[in-house]
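Protocol step 4 of 6: structure prediction from sequence.
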Amino acid sequence: MRLRNVKNAKEIVEKSAYVVHDSTSHKGKFAEEVFFNNNPIHLEIGMGKGNFLIAMAKKYPHLNFVGVERYESVVCRALEKLEEEHLLNLKILVMDASSLGEVFASEIETIYLNFSDPWPKKRHAKRRLTSLAFLPIYDAICKEEKIIVQKTDNVSLFESSIVSLSIYGYKIEDISLSLADTDKPNCLTEYEAKFMEQGIKINYLYARKK
């Protein structure tokens, strides 16, 4: 993805009420102190421009949604879409996923990995969000039962995800090699909408670990 800088991105992010700035101070009590409720927290890692996260927050107002994104310029694009919204169940963290253990402690109900960077080179395999380098982090931040939902157009990433999740003790409870051909409820990411227009098939899995 080509990243375009946004002028004053840091300032825009710092001023937004959707962005949680002191995230580590809420560890273990994120829902109560950030959302002011006890609703389940669903986490999207690599939220991009926010299409999926915003749609999910609107569709499921009884759930709390948190989006994680590394780049402030990308977060700004999501904040532009949120200017006309008033979603009390949506928050954003500007951070690297490797530091999520500093923010949450056994609080996340479901993790969404939508069109993550495939890191195709073998030497970069540990950077994949479904690699054995990240799965222990998810153990620490999720509740006793761990749920991961993945969507990707990259077949190699999908195959490696199935392997690593299975090795780590996840059970793949649902899987599809063409999500558009199923009747599963689905909120689209910006990438997904473009891919579907081009006829590119979307791989999907739902994995659970107790």
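Step 5 (inspection) to follow. The mean pLDDT is 95.
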